[in-house]
Design goal:
- The strands form four sheets. A six-stranded antiparallel beta sheet has the order 6-7-8-17-16-15. Strands 9-10-11-14-13-12 form a six-stranded antiparallel beta sheet. A five-stranded mixed beta sheet has the order 1-2-4-3-5, sandwiched between helices.
- It is an alpha+beta fold.
- The protein contains 26 helices and 21 strands.
Length: 802
């Protein structure tokens, strides 16, 4: 991506570029059609032929607008799919004469093509603006009012030919010929020399021509026409169509003027006499936007010759209607033909109708009765889909994703906290939203989400099954009927077992789902909620945490936690969360890894996915405006309330800025996304609130030493390869040191630590760690490091097993 696409956006650059290129053949077809109309209708009135040209120019604009909208949507979808910019023609040929080869070349050089067009457009626009300035100077500075008798005569002539507004007559020594300037307040400008070189009848004939321009609103049409010419300055066919409009416009005004004269021959003689006059050395009609009797049509002799031919009627409105209808029909044909091309040329096994039907089938599998996406994987491949080749399946997934984008995200209304984004940022945010909601289904469709095992279970006295499933990569899903949840709540402590899964309701009405993944899972994991204290200090799971998240927003019913180590997953839903889902007050809740919701089908769906690309809600936070996040103000109020309750001697154990930065670093290592300033503000409140909660809990527990607990070590495994020590242990300051190890083998890492700490050795099984590791030991101490290396081996052993 170069500076032009960064500045203007890829979607705009490619859509506009292809629109301009397509205008060449589109205008060619329109120009040929106009030429045929004008050739076969030589006896039609000039006004009808003029209208034909105007309609033809309008068709070119409509076709360009349709082309732009079509390509804008195609490019937008291509960017959403992270695919190449779409080609207008798809072919397997690699020949130099292949349209696809040329299309690819054009795409690679589209920024250069558009830059050249922009330079030409800027020059044409400067000429256009210069013309407007020239008109202004003619009207206000380079002319003076005509005498009262002539102004009265102009008013009388205007009323006679049907001009419905006041017209001012002004004289100028700078003009070569008469012209009209202005639309709302039109002015007829007359060379001062004409008053002495032409008779009164001849001047009136000339004035009738200019007043005819005003009656026909030619100045306004001319402004629009000239603007179109600046857009298509490179397209000589558009310029040719414009020239036909200019010619027939002058002919139409000649007809109106001639009808008010003694005869057409007298008007022709007047034009001939006018053409022989010399207005002076300083006179000119250089203004592009003036309606001049000689300025817009240099072939004055052709107009004079036309007036000597048998008269053509000026009152045949049906002629203009017929020609306009013919050209409109052409435009409709071209636009329909462009839309009628094969929609799915990359899927040969199925016709377009079958592909559309397959898209509808999978859409119905993905979207539930509430018009919301299922959290669990609901894909049931059909025979049509299984009949596709691998290449066709990949193409179908792109088309299916494009259909989801078109239906649900292309025109999605912005929430307030996205209102600050520009178009490109809002496009990227919608891409993340699409991935967040549909990634699991699309991965299953692509064959990248493979189910490993599935288990069914029932609660006593309940006929509906509870379904559990695990997938490659660590994804876990559960579908629990609402009736089963109610039955479990009536039997607190009783559990439903199915393979490695355990589901039970606790005494407080909360719900606990556990998946056993190893042999070292403590028994308490299936009977109570795992808390942060279990992973810290002398907790039973100290040093084993892979993932842990907690949410306690009772207003939204999102009270939940998620914990994971190499040996288990645990999902805990608080009573408020369960009740809000079951009663439909708040049917869903999700975070970076975990999602749950109740559907109209009477099922609670729970899903967990540890894949790095699934940290989509965190990526989404990059685009949000913290000042407008609906929950941030509430979190800040809750933090203030906690800090007011916290004893003053524990305030020094809250996170300092350096500790928060380490949290942000761990988060970025975990998600692969650099945290923005907006995210830092939000997560500062979240992390500090978690810290304050922990400190208050330590104070209120009589069996704990509050200060010892307050100053326990906090570290995070961002993934199997990255470890960050965030908060120091309760040690003497001299015993703490920073030791940063980046992209080293485990042998190199152990050697680096051994230079500082005695007795550090490579742990048993170190050869399993085959990838470089990064260990950020901020304010660490020697007693930690042997455990870090042992955990590193355990991480990789678990990774190998998976």
């Amino acid at each position: 991506m170069n500076w032009l696409t960064q500045w203007m956006g890829e979607t705009f650059v490619y859509a506009l570029g292809w629109t301009l290129l397509h205008s060449l053949w589109q205008s060619a077809l329109v120009a040929v059609s106009l030429a045929l109309v004008l050739t076969v209708t030589p006896r039609w009135s000039a006004n009808a032929r003029y209208l034909s040209g105007v309609v033809a120019l309008g068709i070119v604009m409509v076709l360009s607008a349709l082309t732009y909208s079509r390509y804008y949507a195609l490019v937008e979808v291509a960017l959403v799919e992270a695919a190449a910019v779409p080609e207008p023609v798809l072919t397997d040929s690699g020949s130099l004469f292949s349209p696809a080869v040329w299309a690819q070349w054009i795409n690679r050089h589209m920024s250069t093509i558009l830059l050249l067009w922009m330079l030409g457009f800027a020059l044409s626009m400067a000429r256009y603006c210069g013309g407007l300035l020239y008109c202004y100077r003619l009207k206000n500075r380079l002319s003076h009012p005509a005498s009262s008798p002539w102004q009265t005569r102009v008013n009388a002539l205007g009323s006679r030919i049907g001009v419905g507004r006041d017209v001012v007559l002004r004289l100028s020594e700078r003009l070569e010929g008469p012209c009209v300037v202005g639309h709302l307040k039109p002015v007829v400008l007359l060379p001062a020399a004409l008053l002495t070189q032409m008779s009164r009848d001849e001047l009136e004939a000339i004035l009738r021509h200019e007043l005819a321009h005003i009656r026909r609103n030619d100045y306004l049409v001319g402004l629009i026409q000239s603007l179109i010419k600046t857009l298509y300055f490179f397209n000589w066919l558009v310029l040719w169509i414009s020239a036909q409009i200019d010619r027939e416009r002058e002919n139409a005004c000649d007809d109106i003027a001639a009808d008010g004269c003694k005869s057409r021959i007298f008007y022709a003689e007047t034009l001939a006499r006018f053409s022989s006059l010399k207005m002076g050395d300083s006179a000119s009609n250089d203004g592009e936007l003036t309606m001049a009797i000689n300025g817009k049509h240099p072939h004055l002799l052709a107009r004079i010759r036309r007036l000597f031919e048998p008269a053509t009627s000026t009152a045949r409105p049906f002629e203009g209607l017929v020609s306009s209808l013919l050209l409109v029909a052409l435009g409709l044909f071209l636009s329909m033909h462009s839309q009628a091309e094969d929609q799915y040329p990359d899927i040969e096994t199925l016709d377009d109708a079958s592909v559309e039907s397959l898209i509808d089938t999978f859409r119905s599998q993905l979207i539930d009765a509430d018009d919301e996406p299922h959290f669990v994987t609901t894909l049931v491949p059909t025979s049509d889909y299984q009949a596709l080749s691998d290449q066709e399946r990949a193409a179908f997934v792109r088309h299916f994703k494009a259909a989801l984008w078109k239906d649900r995200y292309r025109d999605k209304e912005r929430p307030p906290f996205y209102s600050h984004l520009n178009e490109e940022e809002w496009l990227e945010a919608r891409q993340v939203l699409l991935e967040q909601h549909y990634a699991h289904f699309l991965r299953a469709l692509e064959g990248k989400l493979v189910r490993l095992e599935e288990h069914d279970a029932r609660v006593s006295d309940q006929s509906d099954k509870i379904r559990f499933a695990t997938y490659e990569g660590g994804r876990m899903e559960a579908e629990v009927p609402v009736g089963s949840i109610r039955a479990l709540q009536n039997q607190p402590g009783e559990s439903v077992e199915a393979g490695p899964f355990s589901l039970r309701a606790l005494n407080d009405g909360s719900l606990l789902l556990t998946l056993r993944r190893g042999e070292q899972m403590p028994d308490f994991v299936t009977s109570r909620k795992v808390g942060s204290e279990d992973f810290s200090g002398d907790g039973a799971l100290a040093g084993k945490m892979k993932f842990f998240s907690y949410n306690d927003d009772p207003k939204q019913g999102h009270i939940r936690s998620f914990a994971a180590t190499s040996d288990f997953y645990q999902v805990w839903l608080g009573k408020e969360a369960v009740e809000s889902v079951l009663t439909g007050q708040d049917a869903e809740g999700y975070s970076a890894l975990l999602g749950f919701r109740a559907s109209r089908e009477g099922l609670m769906e729970i899903a967990f996915d540890p894949e790095p690309e699934q940290y989509l809600s965190n990526r989404l936070m990059m685009f949000m405006d913290s000042d407008k996040l609906p929950f941030l103000e509430e979190l800040e109020k809750e933090l203030a309330s906690l800090l007011a309750k916290l004893p003053s001697d524990l305030h020094s154990y809250l996170y300092q800025e350096k500790h928060l930065e380490r949290h942000f670093q761990a988060w970025s290592l975990q998600t692969g996304v650099v945290m923005s300033d907006r995210q830092k503000r939000t997560f500062t409140v979240i992390f500090q609130k978690m810290r304050a909660d922990f400190l208050l809990e330590a104070v209120q527990d009589p069996e704990r030493d509050a200060l010892e607990m307050a100053h326990h070590s906090i570290s995070v495994w961002a993934d199997e390869f990255n470890w960050v020590n965030i908060y120091p242990a309760h040690k003497e300051p001299d015993a703490l040191f920073d030791l940063i190890i980046e992209d080293k083998t485990i042998t190199e890492a152990v050697a680096q630590v051994a230079e500082v700490c005695e007795g550090i050795e490579r742990p048993e099984g170190y050869e399993l760690v085959t990838q470089p590791v990064s260990l950020y030991g901020y304010e660490t101490h020697c007693e930690q490091w042997q455990g870090v290396f042992e955990q590193l081996v355990e991480n990789h052993a678990d990774l190998a097993a998976r």
